[in-house]
Amino acid sequence: MPRSARPTKHGDRWRIRWLDHTGKRQSDVFDTYKQADQELRRHQAEVEEVKRGLRAPPAPEKKSVGDALDYWLDNRAPQKRSGGDDESIIKCHLRPSFGHLLLRELGVQHTDAFVAQRAALNAKTVHNHLTLFISVLNAAVDLGWLAKVPRIKKPKVRIFSADYRYVRTVEERDKFLRAAHDDGEHVFALYSTAVFTGMREGELAALHWDDVDFDKRLITVQRSFEGPTKAEDVRYVPILDALLPTLRAWRLRCSGKLVFPNRDGRMLLPSSRIFQEVLHRVLKRAGFPKRERRGASRSYIVFHDLRHTFASHWMMHGGDLFKLQKILGHKTVAMTMRYAHLAPHAFTEDHGRFGVVALAPAPVRAMNG
């Protein structure tokens, strides 16, 4: 290192000087040259890591990551529809891993270790945990507790994939709905609406009859379990011919405020049996087998897969991709593109796009000839 960056004698002690990440000159003194030299090298390495985005700059205050998590739970999480999820993620994952650190100590090595320790979890799950953590750290920046959020590398997650579960054919769909009908009118009406609208379970649970317009053949989706819809936008879902008679008949049977109340007339909850145990019972009655997934035997579908079923069958029956985007409430068409390959004539018009090659194919020769 240059002579100016070495410890210098200061009476009976040794002084070090360095420039921090802002370019401001800093200094300190130590009893021995070895101590001074080690601390100088440490400071220089930290400054370099800050410049490269591998470490957060020193915080103006000695606040811990735990303080930032507490602030988030007290002030930001209550404003979110998914605030309960935030609380669970912070309690089970973020606080045990980061809560003891000072904000200014947090570096890329800590988040890399967090990802490595969760290699067995789904990449999307870890991705979501770190997305929340980045939001917490951004709040700390807003408060002046942290100068800059360190670089955090989240696991790569594909925007869309064909590897999702759904009831694949019309025959399977009808077999599923017949089994639901055998389980009761309430089950049949709810499952049919899920299959033919693609609405989420929370949106179905919070649906009011005032949101159902039989004249215009539209359902207004504007609420979920704990308030607004996931995207906090109102959207409109058509009442298809396949659903209309079922929904009309159910309206005569269910005259309260909610379209799909529980037995006490109140709103269904995420833990309600109709979303889980009843679905497993219907699948078993219909003869759907268990599936191996990530080394474990799992149900053929879960309730959310009825949303995938609607979207898949919409495309298989020639539905428009951009209309599907609006019906599902996707912010961008990228999420909806996962279903595009199911369109019956997706590439028919493209087969001759480059014309025909005029050259005749080379004659086939024997391997040893």
Radius of gyration over C-alpha positions, nearest whole angstrom: 29 Å
The CATH class name of the largest domain reads Mainly Alpha
Mean pLDDT: 88
Q: Please state roughly what percent of the residues sit in beta strands, choosing from under 5%, 5-15%, 15-25%, 25-35%, 35-45% or over 45%.
A: 5-15%
- How helix-rich are the residues, as a percent range? 40-55%
**Count of alpha and pi helical runs:** 13
Provide the number of structural domains: 3
Basic shape: elongated
Strand and helix order: EEEHHHHHHHHEEEEEHHEEHHH
Low-confidence regions: none
Determine the N-to-C terminus distance: 68 Å
What CATH architecture of the largest domain do you see?
Answer: Orthogonal Bundle
CATH homologous superfamily label of the largest domain: Intergrase catalytic core
User: What is the CATH fold-level name of the largest domain?
Assistant: hpI Integrase, Chain A
Q: Structural class of the secondary elements?
A: mainly alpha
Largest sheet: 3 strands, antiparallel
What does this entry show, briefly?
The chain has 369 residues and is mainly alpha-helical.
Which tags fit this structure?
42% helix; elongated; hpI Integrase, Chain A; mainly alpha; 3-stranded antiparallel β-sheet; 369 residues; 3 domains
Characterise this structure:
The protein is mainly alpha-helical. It folds into 3 domains: 3-51, no CATH class; 65-143; 170-342, Orthogonal Bundle (hpI Integrase, Chain A). 42% of the residues lie in helices and 10% in strands. The chain is built from 13 helices and 10 strands. It has helices at 33-51, 65-76, 83-98, 108-117, 123-143, 170-183, 185-197, 201-205, 244-253, 277-286, 305-316, 321-328, 333-336, and strands spanning 8-10, 13-19, 25-30, 212-213, 218-221, 223-224, 227-228, 235-238, 291-293, 296-298.
